[in-house]
Amino acid sequence: MEKRYVVIIGGKLQGVEALYLAEKAGLETILVDKNPFPIGQKFCNRFICQDVIDYTRDLLSLFQNAAFVLPALEDQETLRTLKSLSEVHGFTLIYDDDAYRISSSKLHSDQAMAQYQVPVPLYYPKGTFPYVAKPSGGSCSQGVQRINDAASMAVFLKSHSRDQWVIQEFLEGPSYSIEIIGTPGHYDTYHITELFMDEEYDCKRVLSRPDLKKSLKNRFQTIALQLGKMVQLKGIMDVEVIDHGGELKVLEIDARIPSQTPITVYHATGINMMMELYRKFYDPSILVKPLAKERYVSLEQVEVNGNNIKVSGEHIMTQSGTLFLQEGFCGADEALTDYEPGVHCWRATLIHCADSAAALEKKRAQTFDAICALQGGNTNVIDLEPVS
After folding, report:
1. Cis peptide before 284, with omega less than 30 degrees from 0?
2. How many Cβ atoms sit within 10 Å of the Cβ of residue 294?
3. Residue 150 burial by Cβ neighbours in a 10 Å radius (0-12, 13-18, 19+)
4. Region label for 305, one of left (φ > 0), alpha (ψ between -120 and 50) or beta (otherwise)
5. Strand 324-327 and strand 308-312: pairing?
6. pLDDT digit string (tens) for 8-64?
7. Total Cβ atoms within 10 A of residue 316
8. Rounded distance, CA 334 to CA 43, Å?
């Protein structure tokens, strides 16, 4: 079947992820965004500055002739418009409204998981301090708060509505992510990555972990498949868990294309999730050939401001200028960055690949040394974790 273009709606973090992977897969892309200068503009073959809500006949024609249309945003009105248009005009939309409705509310998703007996952190007042409070409909780390004692909890409950917040026990342990793609009865799961958070609970670093125990991988894959069945997924979803004392507990699910982890999985395994979507929803004859050996990969964001180099959550990339792909940037395999020569304030997503954990850490250290030199030396590297 002849390769056709794909349309990405939204050029922020999720859009950059989709466009980057589509380019690696050799797919032609059209980016549609109402912002005239989205950070992902340079990763597409064609950019259309338009609000989907104010669609035109020409835009509809592009949708109908695409292999598929992929929303890479969370704006409810835009998603409703796309769903309605796809039903009326018959184009393939990689968006599962029912699954997204469940996953976009932590309260609704946890209620569904309870029915399926999927393990999750205990809700307040069960469990013990500390607890973590999250907006039920929030995105990523936005609004997350840690509550350490009863006095702090009383203050929090006095000023926040319980029906809009999830309050669960704060668990210690490594966090992992996995993606699942497909339709009911035909799901595939992908490479597991480890997540590291900054002081604001935003993911600052993703690691490929080929050395994870097979038993953990099998348990996590089983949970992901169970959750795909639970929401009757038709598209892509990622699942995040925490390994607390050997038990995997689900922190959240998101029925949308994620950011950070698919690029990490691509470099670790050769499996490209945009090509997987293309294969599953447009051309099933495509053959997938993974790498012969899984690689160790690090993907992390840095914000450079004069003499300060801070490893930070991905939210910093939304504040960048237009991103460019630079291979070999300061010794990293690749960087998605707004750096320009002579500019001392910039941001980058750094990607490092290696055949061992030790080689990966050595490579990362060399890149940070090179960034320090680029900034003129005498720099401070800041790499914070969530506050206890």
Report:
1. no
2. 18
3. exposed
4. beta
5. unpaired
6. 999 999 999 999 999 999 999 999 999 999 999 999 999 999 999 999 999 999 999
7. 19
8. 14
Specify the residue for token string 């099933």.
284
Tell me the C-alpha to C-alpha distance, in Å, between residue 101 and each of 85, 88, 222, 255, 271.
18, 21, 22, 9, 28
- Taking residue 271's Cβ as centre, other Cβ atoms within 10 Å add up to 19
Residue 137 has pLDDT above 90, yes or no: no
Q: CB of 338 within 8 A of CB of 346?
A: yes
φ, ψ at 204 (rounded to 5°)? -100, -20
DSSP-assigned states of every residue in 295-347: -EEEEEEEEEETTEEEEE-GGGGGGS-S-EEEETGGG-SEEEE---TT-SEEE
User: Token pair of 99, please?
Assistant: 């699954």
Q: Which two tokens stand for residue 20?
A: 């980057």
pTM: 0.95
- Cα–Cα nearest to 312, from 158, 141, 184: 141
Do the strands 193-197 and 175-183 form a parallel or antiparallel pair, or are they unpaired?
Answer: antiparallel
